[in-house]
Amino acid sequence: MWAAPSRWGWLNLLTPKGLFAHDTYNKLFTMHGIIMVFFFLVPSIPATLGNFLVPPMVGARDLAFPRINLLSWYIYIVGGIFAITAIVRGGVDTGWTFYAPFSSTYSNTHVILAAIGVFVSGFSSILTGLNFIVTVHKMRAPGMTWSRLPLFVWAHYATSLIQVLGTPVIAITIVLLGMERVLHAGIFDPALGGDPILFQHLFWFYSHPAVYIMILPGMGVISEIVACFSRKSIFGYGFVAFSSVAIAVLGFLVWGHHLFVAGQSMYASMVFSFISFLVAVPSAIKVFNWTATMYRGSVSYDTPMLYAFGFIGLFTIGGLTGLFLATMAVDVHVTDTYFVIAHFHYVMVGGMVMAYLGGVHFWFPKITGRLYPEGWAKFAALVVFVGFNLTFFPQFVLGYLGMPRRYAAYADEFQILNVMSTAGASILGVGYLIPMIYLAWAWRYGPKSPQNPWGAKGLEWEQSPTPPPTFNFDVPPVMNEPAYNYSGEEKEVEIGR
Amino acid sequence: MGALSIFPPRASTTAGEVDALYGFLLVVGIGMTALIFFFVFFFAIKYRRRSPDERPKAIHGSIPLEITWSVIPFLVMLVMFAWGTKLYFQNYTPPRRDTLDIYVTGKQWMWKIQYPDGQREINELHVPTGRPVKVTLASEDVLHSFFLPAFRLKHDVVPGSYQTFWFEATKPGRYHIFCAEYCGTNHSQMIGWVTVMDPVSYETWLSAGAGGSSMAELGQKLFEQYGCVSCHVLDQQGRCPSLRNVFGNPVKLEDGRTVIADEAYIRESILNPNAKIVSGYKRDVMPVFQGQINEEGLLQLIVYIKSLSNPPKPAAAKTAAAAGKRSPQ
Ligand code: HEM
Ligand SMILES: [Cu+2]
Ligand SMILES: [Cu+2]
Predict the structure, then answer these.
(1) What are the φ and ψ backbone dihedral angles of A423, each rounded to 5 degrees?
(2) How much is the pTM?
(3) B162: in domain
(4) Buried b (16+ CB within 10 A) or exposed e, A279-317
(5) Which end of chain B has the least Cβ crowding within 10 Å, N or C?
């Protein structure tokens, strides 16, 4: 369902004039953004893999508050119902960013319904974060020290911190927006005495950290996969774990890089630019450490590892183009163009969705107790990689050439690159469809999986039966070795010795 | 520049500089990508699994390596930061030289452009080469963004305040104007053309369009029409300040502060007079004009008040910009 709107959107951009009415296109990209960001990217890994795997990975029977966990699921559904109602009743045309005063005064679409959807789903996010934090602190099995915690768990822990601290801000922002739209309180609309830049500050104060809510869990997945399929303990475990927390903290201090051309003080911009470069360092550290993990390893090319390769490559490009955007004079030219679109799709679709697919393939045997067809899976991973690059790479060029984002129609000279992009999107669509089909098939008819098909380390593979019983373990687990102990060491080794 | 160039036309003094910085970023970016791809492929192939029961020895990490790959990239990033910041300040701070001032008002879904001499255009901007042009941006409704790809510049247009940036065109031709901030249904139609002309053709173009009233004259008409004149000129009891030589000069306020009378200050003084009271005068005397005068008219009034400063001070906005306050509102 979530993939469809982007495809329609691409179809629209086959021709310069566009195939759809402008309002229709505007509603499509808004709906695409809202659903993807708030209802897919934010919850995807934490709510599926995270919920399933954090407890067994730390050696717990369940999350600390199973009922709150269920509640967060219901809240998500209610939020989703609001968003879908907004769409069914005619849609929203503000963009997922809801910038005022367009959203608060000018738009005559279902802004309030969609905003309530986002508001409500935020609570689901907060509760999930809360649950993970408490679980990690309180429910670890004997021997599961902080320095033995799987990096997947570290990443979820950092994500949870952001969710708990950041999400209330977007909730407040939405409430203020609603007050202005319904009660005409002058908060953001200058005609009512408000300040439109204030909205952007509030919005990005959440939404920049939110991009790390989206990517950190993906980074956690990649750490697990790279270690397992290299049969090596993670290179620089402490650095990888700590960089997640560094990203979570620094991520709160860079929101102003979305306002370089918005009329923010130039000195503020300078500070935000500087911190944006700083936050790139821990991301780079992760990439280097994953690569180094393979050194002198035993690398196999199973499907999850193919996705991890894809992730490392695409996230590198996404992250490096982030540096272009943090460089202010270049950002002035490329902000609000397709360059930004390409950048965040490299990070979020190239990074986060690749990690998600990698994680799904990695833990599929664990979760369902069955194996999927490896040949099809490898083929699909390749199709996704090719389709992705064909879709989004041309957009970097388009952006620097000056094609603004959110355009229902565009200047003729941009057509060739747009056609390439649309073609790529079709391939990418097929690439996503294939796993949906064979995974659904394998869930029912796939051959039974052995206990630990990859020979992976970690309590969830070694001490919990496959597929796990309701409370994960038949015998209470004990962690009696270092993390990622692929080479069978007795106890932890300090690095540098 | 061929059809498949990755650079749009370069038509301003800054375009080449931004492209050079972009080129540097591309080199670093492609270099880093190549490095990582190389190591990923190299390790993946060299250390591929040869037998199912391989047990490689653990390598837990290396502090010197961690330091190297944190510090070196960071140093490179410092270069990006310094270079990008320098250029950014340069592009957003209008020069002290005499600028050609142009006023742009964004409105769903068109650009209205006014020249000091009184020419007005919609979705068309004409500028000469070789002269710095200062653009003052106002919005009648929602956010827009005035984007000139051939000049590598854009700035958001923010309702309720003035935003400024400047450029100096170098190459005659016709280039795109785009709206780059989503503004509703016809956002993608809020487009136009900037025509860059050599100074001689520009003069010809200007005089062809002349004949109407200049912006200052239009402003003077509004000044009479809205009754400003009855207080600010005719009032003999000293209840109202004279507006001569206000623009560009410091104004002492009732609360003791001193502010420079730039466009933003004049704008606020008209729309919401009680926000800042001139020292020695009373609040609630001047009527509130919020919602009464449209943005174009407001700009004309401001140009008129500017013209009362003799000799006209070079735009006060840059004093404010130098102080790091670009949108005092
Ligand atoms: C390597 C570190 C990164 C840096 C330095 C960076 C930098 C930036 C900058 C400066 C912008 C603002 C561009 C503009 O609007 O002109 C931006 C936009 C964006 N980034 Fe990143 N980024 C990084 C990583 C990420 C990650 C990890 C994600 C998501 C998982 C992400 C998602 C986004 C999104 C969604 C936008 C666009 C928001 C919008 O305007 O709709 N970025 N990035
Ligand atoms: Cu950001
Ligand atoms: Cu627009």
Answers:
(1) -60, -45
(2) 0.90
(3) yes
(4) bbbbbbbbbbbbbbbbbbbbbbebbbbbbbbbbbbbbbb
(5) N
Nearest CB to A277: which of B22, B80, B184?
B80
Average pLDDT, chain B: 88
pLDDT tens digits, B80-92: 999 999 999 999 9
Question: pLDDT tens across A444-460, in order?
Answer: 999 999 999 999 999 99
Choose between B322 and B73: higher pLDDT: B73
Based on the structure, what is the number of domains in chain B? 3
Verify that A336 and A295 share a domain, yes or no: no
Single out the residue in B208, B240, B258 at which a domain terminates: B208
Chain B nearest CA to A415, separation (Å):
11
In which band, very low, low, confident or very high, does the pLDDT at B227 lie, cut at 50, 70 and 90?
A: confident
| In-domain check, residue B304 | yes
Query: Residues 27..46 of B with a Cβ closer than 8 Å to A: which?
Result: 28-29, 32-33, 36-37, 39-40, 43-44
Whether B95 is covered by a domain: the verdict is no
- Domain boundary among the residues B208, B229, B253 is at B208
Domain encompassing residue B307: 215-326
In a domain, A311, yes or no: yes
Contact A333 B18 (CB under 8 A): yes
DSSP class of residue A255? G
**ipTM (interface predicted TM):** 0.91
CATH number, domain of B161, equals: 2.60.40.420
**Closest-approach residue (CA) in chain B for A454:** B52
Residues in chain A within 8 Å Cβ distance of B142: 99, 101-102, 105-106
CATH number of the domain bearing residue B263: 1.10.760.10
Residue A213 lies in a domain: yes
Confidence of residue B321 (pLDDT cuts 50, 70, 90): very low
A106: exposed, middle or buried (C-beta count within 10 Å: 0-12, 13-18, 19+)? middle
What is the spatial distance between Cα A287 and Cα A277, in angstroms, rounded to a whole number? 16
Contacts of A346 in chain B (CB under 8 A): none
Q: DSSP readout, A384-401? A: HHHHHHHHHHHHHHHHHH
Statement to judge: residues A422 and A404 lie in one domain: yes
If asked whether residues A229 and A120 sit together in one domain, one would say yes
The number of folded domains in chain A is: 2
- Which H, E and C letters describe chain B, residue by residue? CCCCCCCCCCCEHHHHHHHHHHHHHHHHHHHHHHHHHHHHHHHHHHCECCCCCCCCCCCCCCHHHHHHHHHHHHHHHHHHHHHHHHHHHHHHCCCCCCCEEEEEEEECCEEEEECCCCCEEECEEEEEECCEEEEEEEECCCCEEEEEHHHCEEEEECCCCCEEEEEEECCCEEEEEEECCCCCCCHHHCCEEEEEECHHHHHHHHHHHECECCHHHHHHHHHHHCCHHHHHCCCCCCCCCCCCCCCCCEEEECCCCEEECCHHHHHHHHHCHHHCCECCCCCCCCCCCCCCCCHHHHHHHHHHHHHCCCCCCCCCHHHHHHCCCCCCC
Using the Cβ of A496 and the Cβ atoms of chain B, whether some distance falls under 8 Å is answered with yes
Per the document, the length of chain A is 497
Which atom of ligand 1 lies nearest, measured to the CA of A273? 10
Average pLDDT of B32-58? 93
Residue A380's contacts (CB-CB under 8 Å, 6 or more residues apart) are: A431, A434, A435, A438
The answer to the question of residue A494 being in a domain is: no
Range of the domain at A172: 22-300+453-477
| Residue A239 sits in the same domain as residue A349 | no
Q: Residue A167 is part of a domain; what is its CATH number?
A: 1.20.210.10
On whether both B34 and B10 belong to a single domain, the answer is yes
Q: With respect to residue A103, please indicate whether it lies within any of the assigned structural domains.
A: yes
A127 and A255 belong to one structural domain: yes
Question: Which are the contacts of A102, defined by CB distance < 8 A and separation ≥ 6?
Answer: A94, B142, B143, B182, B183, B184
The answer to whether residues A161 and A121 belong to one domain is: yes
